[in-house]
Specification:
Blueprint lengths: L8 H11 L4 H7 L4 H8 L7 H11 L3 H16 L3 H17 L1
Length: 100
Amino acid sequence: MTTRIPTHPGSVLKEELESRKISQKQFAELIEMSYNQLNEILNEKRPVTVDFALMIEASLGINPELLINMQNRYNMAVAHKQPSLIERLNAIHKKCAAVF
């Protein structure tokens, strides 16, 4: 069974800007952020940080906690798919199960 990765908050913000007919370049200028940084967030290549979420609240009125919670769920799902981490977690589980 394949578990779906939760939606990255950047994807939601990208749709929001498109629905409001605000270009990425224009929005980047409004919030005083480089276009490249904004574009990377909107294209799921960078995480939404607390500072960025607060800028979104100030500019678009979107709850910053919603964005941070989305980012956290996304990060956890991606981490749980990393084979090296899964292997390490299984090893830790086995060691601790033997001790406790």
